[in-house]
Amino acid sequence: MTDSPPRVLLITGASRGIGAACALRAAQAGWDVGVNFHRDEASAEQVAAQVRALGRRACALRADVAREGEIEAMFQRLDAELGPLGGLVNNAGIVDVAARVDEMSAARIARLFNVNVVGAFVCAREAVRRMSTRHGGRGGVIVNLSSAAARLGSPGIYVDYAASKAAIDNLTLGLAREVADEGIRVNGVRPGIIATDIHAASGMLQRAQAAVDAIPMKRLGTADEVAQAVAFLLSDAAGYMTGATLDVTGGR
Ligand code: NAD
Q: Which end of the chain is more exposed for a tag (fewer CB within 10 A), N or C?
């Protein structure tokens, strides 16, 4: 019988919104948490303090997930501060201002893909190098934040973002199968419209009524409702699930 995976989890972009909610749900489920942030250190330290108040260990870790060297340094610091990794939530993500494809610069599209896609790939790579039984690890679990946009395409608003999340869905599927016999499960969550700061740029919540009308449950979701789905996928209750992405969309 091999040891079970370590209960140390890294969540990217965890200083607010869905990532912060995931940190609290994970702490309640017994995970120690590395709280990655990009710029807002004070908020990340607050989330880390909330995790500690729940009786778990936590540390705030600065890294821009668009920069490979910063990601590598972040994983090394996590190893040093909390010990061997057992889980990753690829949550950091960005949306740009609403635009049509024929208005988008290559720089905008590249920046968005660097954060949302390349960042998630490189974080997954670092996690697999630590958790895979092939590399001497004790296994683990990865959850990727996709979006309902991956299936809707988001025409006229952010086709670039929707395409980046479709790439995440395929990362989930392909990586899950690649490491399925190495002790690692990989799953995803596709949130619908969740009331967080991410919508400040796109103006989505300014069109809130139209957005709500399009949701069968006639309300926006909360960050905690997404975090509960993530916590399920992290848990042994999802022990035979890999390569799956759950819709948390109010039926949208
Ligand atoms: P948010 O803007 O509140 O949080 C995003 C987090 O990512 C922030 O903490 C931000 O600092 C961090 N981040 C951004 N760029 C980063 C970088 N380069 N390096 C490190 N961290 C970075 O948004 P949210 O709604 O909590 O979004 C979390 C995830 O859920 C994202 O991947 C998003 O695409 C996805 N999602 C959100 C919604 C929604 O409606 N809110 C819907 C579908 C999917």
A: N
Query: ipTM of this predicted complex?
Result: 0.99
The answer, yes or no, to whether residue 1 has pLDDT greater than 80, is no
Q: In the structure encoding, which two tokens stand for residue 248, read together? A: 């948390």
**CB 15: neighbour CB atoms within 10 A?**
25
pTM: 0.98
d(CA 228, CA 167): 23
- Residue nearest atom 2 of ligand 1, based on CA coordinates: 198
Test site for ligand 1: of 95, 145, 198, most ligand atoms within 8 A of the Cβ? 198
Residue nearest atom 19 in ligand 1 by C-alpha distance: 64
- Model pLDDT for residues 169-195, shown as the tens digit of each residue: 999 999 999 999 999 999 999 999 999
Domains of the chain: 8-248 (3.40.50.720)
Give which of 121, 122, 141, 144 is closest to 132, Cα–Cα: 141
Give the residue, by CA position, lying nearest to ligand 1 atom 6.
13
